[in-house]
Each structure stands twice: as structure tokens, then as C-alpha cells.
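QA checklist item 7 of 12: single-chain prediction sanity check.
[x] sequence parsed
[x] length recorded as 381
[x] structure emitted
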Amino acid sequence: MPKLILDVMGGDYGLRANLDGALQALPELSGELILVGDEKLILEAFAQDRHLKPLAQALNAETAPCIVRISHAPESIEMEDKIKAIRSKPGASINVGCKLARESWQAYKKEGKEPAAFLSSGHSGAMMASALLNMGRIKGVERPAIAVKLPSLSIDGCVILDVGANIECTPENLRDFAVMGALYSHVGRVSKAIPKVAVLSNGEERTKGTPLTRACVELIEKLPCFKGTDAIGEFHGYTEGKEIFKGHIDVVVTDGFTGNLILKSAEGFGSAIVHMIKAEAKKNPLAKIGMAIAAPVFFRLKKKLDYAETGAAPLLGIAGYAFVGHGRSNARAIKNALLSAQTALRSKFVERMEEAIAAQTAATAASSAAAARSADLTGAK
């Protein structure tokens, strides 16, 4: 049964928003939900807020569809703390959650038990550092990446990575991102076609881009996982920024600096366009009537552009399931993040990612060995 671990101390809105989000998600959850935080504060909230009664009733209730448990974390990492706080605050909720996720991953490896997913909307830098320190990386991955799924004209949206974990990248990093992004795009995918993967550039021609993008394209083109009937994706070389939202490409690969700029720009533009439409409508009485008639359409558009609908982004490449929520996550965002994590666990995408990367590493090693033998034979002649 799925096991979800929630840092209830993280995020701008703290304990109450996290508990409210857990409450909203509870009817759709199964298995086990572990609330990581100050146990005294959690129990006080249960006692003071009647609407949290379903959570309190599910606490340690072995017969409940989703059993709620508390894992005490006496400390928390605040947004103003530096990343090194993960060492000075070993009992912080982020550290406790990552350790629980690590233990579940180890149990999966040794005993075949189902792994757990950890979610925190707290300090994203501390979350990344703690996940690396406590959970480690999948063998063959040099650097993890943060992936987000942006809305597009495609029903499945567009996965873009990295969006902030790695400011500077090597061609090998981007190659790994392509594999991880392709596998993650399968989670909850509606389309039966395999995802189309491309590297972000300033043009589609092979002569465009930078030394980094040109080198990584050459590496990705050699990957066996993008070839044959069992391919995890279809590699399309370069793509431009304007294609992200058109629905032609399913996975866009870039460095964390560029990806973060795109993400923040998309968030800002989505919010601004809705406000601009409202402002223009107020200038004309007829437009106000049209706006009222079209209100359901604008509501759906606003909902599609709202980060709270996705809730959290996975840390791809971590040995296990770890998700980073938006710092401004409200209860709805927490709810959707928990449901997304549950879907990810059921899809077993991290397990499949580990297998694909192992196969890629083996193929690369075999190719290098063959090249070395060929060079030796040539030198002998």
C-alpha cells in the first residue's frame, strides 16, 4: 500500500495549511500517511480544530483506509535559514522526512517492500541538500534535477527540467535529464504515443545552440533507450522556447538556470494575462457581460495555470521518491501534491528510471570498451 510522508512544518503557511491539505486529500488516499513535525503542535491542532477530526480519527487506526501516523521532528528549517542548517538542525522535519524515505527505499531494495514518497514545501535548497545527504543518488546519475509539468496545448502538458537544482551543467548532466524527464512524463500520461523529447535552444538547426547543447545532443542521440520498439521516448534534437506551450514537445531539457527563468516567467505571465483580461473587460460594459458569460472558461484557464493544481515537483535522480512543493503552497496545493506523489508511487517511475539509467550506463561502458579495443588493435598494426 502507498506510504506518503508529509513535512507539516514546511512552507510559508506552516502547520495549518499542511494539515488542511492532508485532510482534503485523505478521502482519496490509501495506505499510510506520516505527518512529520512537532508532535505536540500537531496534537494541539487536532484538539483545537474540529474540522481536523477525520485526521485525528485516522491516527494509528489500523482499520482506516489511510492510516495517519506522526513522526516527531523537534526542529524545522526556516526559509531564512542557510542550507547548512540541515547539519546544525539534525532533528529538522526535512531531515527526518528524508531519513524515513531512505529507510523505505532500503527496505524496498532488501525486502521488496513498497517505497515511500516524501513531500516538503519548505526550504527547497535544504530539501535538495538533505535528499542528497540522506537519500543519495541513483547509481549512474551525477546530479538530480527538479522537473515540472507546464500546461500546453497537449492534454499531457510539457515536462521541463532542470528548473533550479543545477545552475551549471555538463553535457552528461543534460543527457541524464533527458532520460529522467522521458520516464517522468509517463506518469499519469493520457496519450498512448511515446513522449517527444528535445533540448532547449535558440533555434532548431543543428548549428544553433551552445557547445553545451551541441555536445549533449550528440550524447542523447546515441542512447539506446530512445531507439527501437521499447524506446521510452522519441528524441527530436533541438526545440525553441515557443514550442514549450504548443504541445508539439513533451519533454524539454535545459540547465537549471535557464529552466528556472522559464518557470518563473510562465508563472508570472499566467497570472498577469488573467488580470489584464479582467482590467480590459472593466473598460467596456458589453465586455463585462461577455466576461460574465465566459467566466467558466476563464476559471478553467486560471486553474490550468495555477501551480496549486500540480502541487509539487519531483527531485529526479534521488534514490527514492522526494517532492518539492511551492513555498506558497496552500491547502489545495498540498492536497494535489499528495495525490501526485501517490500516483507517482503507483506508476513506479523511480524504479523504472533506475533500470533505464543502469541500462544506459552499461551500454555507454560497452561502447567505450569497444572503442578502446579498436584503438588497441589499430595501434598494434
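[x] summary fact logged: The chain is about 50% helix and 15% strand.
[ ] second reviewer sign-off
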